[in-house]
Specification:
113 residues, mainly alpha, two-stranded antiparallel ribbon, disordered N terminus, disordered C terminus
């Protein structure tokens, strides 16, 4: 029984250390970022936090909002393969991209209000 508890504890720690996020690729213009942002928000991402006065509205840039939207979509889809591509405009990263608010991640964290 004790061995089972130890294994469960190790597995839970491993899950938290391997968080992944989806972000918009560097080098894209605002038009491409906005198109990706619009698609992600329309396809199921929870974009309420990047609306005016939302917890993740700032920084108020197309890139920051695009990053939030594609990551929200990616997390809602359980990080399934292909859910962080957006026609080649996004990619997966293991580095936490958050600057101001806490983004959803593999360990189930959600943005703070």
């Amino acid at each position: 029984m004790a061995a089972l508890v130890v294994v469960a504890l190790i597995l839970s720690m491993l899950g938290r250390s391997s968080a992944t996020w989806c972000i918009c690729k560097e080098g894209l213009g605002d038009g491409a970022l906005q198109k990706t942002l619009d698609y992600a928000c329309g396809a199921g991402a929870d974009c309420t936090f990047i609306h005016t006065n939302g917890a993740c509205y700032n920084p108020n840039t197309v890139r920051a909002h695009c990053n939030y939207a594609v990551n929200s979509f990616f997390q809602k889809k359980g990080q399934a393969q292909g859910t962080c591509d957006f026609s080649g405009t996004a990619s997966v990263t293991a580095s936490d991209p958050s600057q101001v608010s806490m983004w959803p991640s593999i360990n189930g964290q959600v943005p703070l209000m």
